Structure formats: C-alpha cells, structure tokens
C-alpha cells in the first residue's frame, strides 16, 4: 500500500477553504440565485391553475344553467353560485397583484432613489 493512500483522504488546506467559502458566498448573492429563491416563483403556477379552474367552473355552471334551466326559470341557485365562482378569480388576481408576495419582494429589492 502506498504511503499517500494509507494516510487517508486529503483534507483541503485552510487557504483553499477560504476561497471556497468566498465563492459560495458570492454565488449566493447573484441575481439568478435570488431569483430562484423568490417566494412567488414556486406558488404562482399552482395559484394560477387553481384560479383558472375555479373561473372555468363558474362559467360552465352559468352556461349549463342558461342552456338547460333558464327557459323554465328552474334551479335559480346556479346563477349566484356561478357568478361567485366566476368573480372570485378576478378578485383574487387583483389582491395578488396589489399586495402579493411578488409585489412586496419587488418593492424591497428595488434600489432607492436619491
């Protein structure tokens, strides 16, 4: 067995450790790293899909009522339910746009004007 292999794995020197730490610290501050850690990037697709599904459900309920039950004025509960389901995504998008996690993060990260 060779003497170098018997000594075990080589540990990085103290000097190399500081360069690695500085590299990782600098990489963590890059815009691409902060963009990946954005709180809105992981939840936005799921939120958008659920809001679209709710809106389409409300529209489908209203169309079904209009085609099947409107001539007889039957099942009138479907109209307010469909309008609520259709209007909820609109209000949700307005609230997300106005005060969502993406808006707050963008305001915090914007440079201050002198």
TrEMBL record:
UniProt feature, compositional bias: Low complexity: 22-35
Keyword Transmembrane helix annotated: yes
Biased composition (Basic residues): 12-21
UniProt keyword list: Membrane, Transmembrane, Transmembrane helix
Domain of life: Eukaryota
Pfam families xrefs: ATP-synt_Z
Transmembrane in keyword set: yes
Residue ranges, annotated region (Disordered): 1-41
Entry-linked InterPro entries: ATP-synth_Z
Transmembrane segments: 48-69, 76-98
Protein name (Swiss-Prot/TrEMBL): Uncharacterized protein
Organism of this sequence: Zizania palustris
């Amino acid at each position: 067995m060779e003497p170098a292999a018997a000594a075990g794995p080589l540990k990085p020197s103290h000097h190399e450790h500081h360069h690695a730490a500085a590299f990782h610290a600098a990489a963590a501050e890059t815009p691409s790293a902060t963009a990946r850690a954005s709180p809105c990037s992981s939840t936005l697709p799921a939120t958008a899909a659920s809001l679209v599904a709710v809106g389409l459900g409300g529209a489908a309920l209203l169309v079904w009522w209009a085609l099947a039950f409107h001539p007889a004025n039957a099942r009138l509960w479907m109209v307010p339910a469909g309008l609520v389901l259709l209007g909820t995504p609109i209000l949700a998008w307005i609230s997300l746009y106005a005060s969502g996690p993406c808006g707050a993060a963008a305001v915090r990260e914007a440079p201050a004007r002198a």
